[in-house]
Amino acid sequence: MLGAVAVVAAATLVYLPSLTLPLSFDDAWSVRLVRDYSALDLFTRTQNFGYYRPLYLAYYRLASLAGASGPLVLHILCIVTHALNTLLAYALTRVFLRPSPNERPIALATAALFLCNPLSVQAVALPAGLNHLIALFFLQLALLSYARARHYTQHTPLGSKPGEAQWSLIWLGGACIASLVAFLANEVALCVPGLCLVYEVSRLFRGERIGRQSWPMLVITALALVYAAVYTLIPKGASPPFVFTLGGALERAFIASQALAHPLVWLLAPYEISGLATATLCLAIMGVGVAYAWPVTRLALVCGALLFAAGVALPVLRLATGYVENAERVFYVASLGASLIWAALAVTTAARLQSWLGRSLGSQRGPFLIHASRIACTVLAAGPGVLYVRNTQSFYARASEPVRAVADSGAALQPGETLLALNVPEWVAVPVRRFPLFIEGAILMADYVDGRDLVFSNTGLDRQVAVQRFQLPYQPELAYAFQTFGADVSPGPVARSFGEATRVLNVSYAPDGPHTAWLGGATQVRPDQIEARFGSQLALVRHHVLACANGWVVALQWRKTAPGAGGDTPKTLSAFAQAFASDGTPLAQKDGAPLAGLLPFADLPGNADIVDRRVLTTTSAAPPSALYIGVYDYTNGARLAATDASGKGLDANAFAIPLVERDRRVECR
Question: How many beta carbons lie within 10 A of that of residue 664, not counting itself?
Fold first, then answer.
């Protein structure tokens, strides 16, 4: 029991950052897809996304019922299922290797390496991979049940003692049920006959008979074949076309090789060798290691290789290369075999290291040296995985910042209000690739994902969200690549959208990742009284200033007071917001048309006011005095005449607002 608690605690510690990740891409779309599904619909409304995976739909339905807690529920399910798979990996390894002097240390090392496998991060940190986790969970249960069934048929096909035939059938029935549940999670579970074959091979290595006594494997194989045949007949909706070619399969096999040799690939990636050369070199080095460990741990190496081959069979033979490149989670099942191989290599190396240390220190069989060597070698093999998992989760958090901003802003809307999000990323690539044959990064949006999906899946609220792509200004050289999402639009349609959007968000791209700014939005709350008038057509209706740690957040409500869409208002008008210290020293300034310059004053809507948010930051410690607001023509610098509500002219054609001292407790955003 303590061991199980320790494994769950370790999984939680490694994947703790994923608990705060918002839902996006397929996760967000799937929550919206099933929000009105009944339990029966999960099995019968199959024409949805090209696959038949009722359990996949079931956990998204659970998330939709949980509302704003849905993302947390899914992330907890991912971590707990991964922890359970780690426990089962330990038990299954012992079943394969029993009896063996290295049975327990290899099983422990397998569990540790599986828990921290770097290519499992997409499956565990993102709920889109939960179906792979569930599939492996029931696959391992099926294999453990199969092993028990074979235990009762090890001498004769139906057992040699009274009652053994009954128990063999009971355990075989359990294996069939677990296999069927795994199929309903993900069709990758159709590799279950291959996993049973691994167990039969382990029995051969122990010198046991497998002839007619292995008839349970025929039952499992028949079940998989029948399900595969039925699966092809089930309507599943549109799915990407796939044509098998030998060249494509070989390409995917090389991609899969990264999952096998992942510690070596991780170490060689910084040297910028081509992906194919890296995979080939890593396999060669790994082959040397296998030859080195073969005399000591041959059974573990063979079982690991067969498990890996069974796990990669469907992705290599049946999935499109483009999909496999973007979805390393398809190798989650195969990572069990890779972990077993590296565990065998680690334990063998530890044995040689302990022997060398024993000779050097004068102690041949010190228990401390044995355990210390095993722990050290396992840590060295698992270390890259831990670093990669933590770094990838940190990257996911940075890349998902716009999704979180859209969800939070959508939750602040009232029914009927609209959110406009500009330049939300479709995908963001990692700054430094560690597995060159994978396209590492975060996919956040797709053509079939609606902006409303981001709000509903993360908050449980149904709000109107428009996602548009606006031409970005010049971007400095960035360490990462990205692509914005939405239809390309010209400034005219965007300006019209501003008059309908209660909130407007804009995503910019900085060296540390995307940043989302709340620019303001349209409001129908239009008081009759105004604070200042600029020229004949513009009015500052009211303002709000929030002191923050490094400056002030200023909200200015603008109104176009003259009729008509444009009238005589020049397109070249710009507003300034200038903060000054008590001694007259400038502290901060932010110029431009409303909404970060995206909405010219000439295009202000006639039926709504525009709230324009500006963040003024300063590094000066001088005490603030006043904020001055004015409007000028940026072509010549001439300010528009400014008057107060009574029509009295304002000094310097600027409206003065008293400033308070900055508040270190409030973030400027």
Answer: 10
Q: What is the pTM of this model?
A: 0.91
40 Cβ contact partners less than 8 Å away, ≥ 6 residues apart: none
φ, ψ of residue 457 in degrees (nearest 5): -70, -25
To the nearest whole percent, how much of the chain has pLDDT over 90? 53
The CB density around residue 593, as the number of other CB atoms within 10 Å, is 23
Across the chain, mean pLDDT equals: 87
Q: Which residues of 325-351 are buried (b: 16+ CB within 10 A; e: fewer)?
A: ebbbbbbbbbbbbbbbbbbbbbbbbbb
Q: Where are the domains of the chain?
A: 2-398, 400-523, 532-658
pLDDT digits (tens, 9 = 90+) for 442-500: 999 998 899 999 999 999 999 999 998 877 766 667 888 888 888 776 555 566 677 78
Q: What's the number of CA atoms in the CB half-sphere (13 Å) around residue 522?
A: 21
d(CA 241, CA 251): 18
Task: Count Cβ neighbours within 10 Å for each residue of 35-52 and write b for 16 or more, e otherwise.
Answer: bebeeeebbebbebbebb
Residues 169-175, mean pLDDT to the nearest whole number: 91
The backbone torsions φ and ψ at residue 483, rounded to the nearest 5 degrees and listed phi first, read -140, 130
The sign of the dihedral angle between the CA atoms of 113, 86, 4, 140 is negative
Nearest to 469 by CA among 454, 485, 481, 483: 485
Task: Report H helices in 128-214.
Answer: 130-151, 164-185, 192-205
- Give the CB-side neighbour count of residue 520, counting CA atoms within 13 A: 27
Residue 14 contacts residue 386 (beta carbons within 8 Å): yes
Q: Could you give the CA distance from residue 557 to residue 612 in angstroms, rounded to a whole number? A: 6
CA atoms within 13 A on the CB side of 462: 5
In the block, which residue shows the tokens 């003692």?
Answer: 161
User: How far is the C-alpha of 502 from the C-alpha of 397, rounded, in Å?
Assistant: 26
**Helical H segments across 16-52, by residue range:** 25-33, 41-44
pLDDT band at 565 (very low <50, low <70, confident <90, very high): very low
Smallest CA-to-CA distance from 662 within 588, 590, 555 is with 588
Q: What is the largest CA-CA distance in the chain?
A: 107
User: Is the per-residue pLDDT at 157 higher than 70?
Assistant: no
How many helices and strands, by DSSP H and E, does the chain display?
20, 17
Q: Which residue has tokens 């908050």?
A: 459
Q: What is the pLDDT of residues 316-331, one digit of tens each?
A: 998 888 888 888 899 9
d(CA 503, CA 463): 12
pLDDT of residue 359: 58
609-633 as b/e: b if 16+ CB within 10 A: bbbbbbbbbbeeeeebbebbbbbbe
Residue 376 is predicted with a pLDDT of 73
Whole-number Å distance between alpha carbons of 502 and 485: 20
Q: DSSP label at 641?
A: P
Confidence of residue 396 (pLDDT cuts 50, 70, 90): very high
Q: Which helix (H) or strand (E) holds 63?
A: helix 54-66
- What does the alpha-carbon distance between residue 534 and residue 458 come to, in Å, rounded to a whole number? 42
Q: What is the third-level CATH fold of 532-658?
A: Immunoglobulin-like (2.60.40)
Pick from 7, 112, 39: nearest CA to 375: 112
